[in-house]
Design goal:
alpha/beta, Rossmann fold, six-stranded parallel β-sheet, 15 helices, about 45% helix, globular, Glu/Phe/Leu/Val/Trp_DH_bac/arc
């Protein structure tokens, strides 16, 4: 695999390699943009096949965070970090604290948070060495689990898609397929159950499926993602890792709507058009899953006074419903896929707001 060039057009502002031999830490921090403010994005702890795979992932994720934060109306740029390794065997207090010192060395250019393989308790450990940590436990002054509002935002976007496609902002009687029932997928099941949707799920983690059986016996479990894709669905919700929408999966989809929590769902730039050509309504992933970053963004904005407010963050996350409707409206008016419309709006905000910094203020 060839290493992606950080100097390509639209590449990141900064890439930092973090290595601490005694703890075994190997991490990469990518800051895509600080046009709107400090870069905010989670830390993913994952057993990548090699360093090239880790770099490719962190660059894509950091770019997605820049667009996500811009579209969510936050005064924050976009960044991301990956720790290379198996969190089940390689995660230690010393490693997390070493990582925290690397984040601290950036002086506030990057704020971290939870992601795949990292949890609230991990953020508390990192915060012992670093001032720029969100997603900490409420007992430690933080916002807690951001997956709650991530799922809430996905549900709001799904309601908006239902309104656009079927004329009602509800999922009752619709069959929703969820690929991945981890932190976000579990909360999404709760929302959809309350809306009386018919739910089918799959996950590679047997423990996650055991949780579904124990807590939601009415939810049907598919043996694989292939089985889920081949099911008759109204909504497909990718809620695991990226790249879920590729040429093969798009060709097999029966769903009229794709709306899920996973980052970087499109395997390549032409997939959004392929979905549109098949009449599938795709809600851009970084719009849909912004609830969590809205939550930790509120925490970051109030680290030094005022404190985090869940109600305030939830009210902002609820606006994902309106933003989704606006993007779908503009998409139809402009004759382009929703992903292109979302990109355009995010880029416009990054450009227009960053331009204001050229206006000199006294002091």
């Amino acid at each position: 695999m060839s290493t992606p060039s950080p100097f390509r057009s639209g590449g990141p502002e900064q890439v930092v390699y973090c290595h601490d031999e005694p703890t075994g830490l190997r991490a990469i921090i990518a800051i895509h943009s600080t046009a709107l403010g400090p870069a905010l994005g989670g830390t993913r702890f994952y057993p990548y096949a090699d360093e090239d795979a880790a770099l490719a992932d962190v660059l894509n994720l950091a770019r997605g965070m820049a667009y996500k934060n811009a579209l969510a109306g936050l005064d924050l740029g976009g960044g991301k970090a990956v720790i290379i390794g198996d969190p089940a065997t390689g995660k230690t207090e010393a490693l997390l604290r070493a990582y925290g010192r690397f984040v601290q060395s950036l002086g506030g250019r990057y704020f971290t948070a939870c992601d795949v393989g990292t949890y609230v308790a991990d953020m508390d450990v990192i915060a012992r060495e670093c001032s720029f940590v969100t997603g900490r436990s409420p007992q430690d002054g933080g916002a807690g689990d951001s997956s709650i509002l991530t799922a809430f935002g996905v549900y709001q976007a799904m309601r908006a898609c239902a309104l656009d496609r079927w004329g009602e902002a509800k999922l009752g009687g619709r069959r929703v397929g969820i690929a991945g029932v981890g932190k976000v997928g579990r909360h999404l099941i709760e929302h959809l159950t309350g809306d009386q949707a018919e739910i089918v799920v799959t996950d590679v983690n047997a423990a996650a499926l055991d949780w579904v059986r124990a807590n939601h016996p009415g939810v049907r479990i598919a043996d694989s993602t292939d089985e889920l894709l081949d099911s008759e669905l109204d909504v497909y919700a990718p809620c695991a890792l990226g790249g879920a929408l590729n040429d093969e999966t798009v060709a097999r989809l029966s769903a009229a709507v794709v709306c899920g929590a996973a980052n970087n769902q499109l395997a390549h730039p032409g997939i959004d058009k392929a979905l549109a050509d098949r009449g599938v309504l795709y809600a851009p992933d970084y719009l849909v899953n912004a609830g969590g970053v809205i939550q930790v963004g509120d925490e970051a904005a109030h680290l030094r006074g005022g404190g985090f407010s869940f109600d305030r963050a939830k009210a902002k996350a609820e606006r994902i419903f309106d933003t989704t409707l606006e993007i779908l409206r503009r998409s139809k008016a402009d004759g382009v896929p929703p992903a292109a419309t979302a990109d355009r709006l995010a880029e416009e905000r990054m450009r227009d707001v960053s331009r204001l910094r050229g206006i000199l203020l006294p002091g």
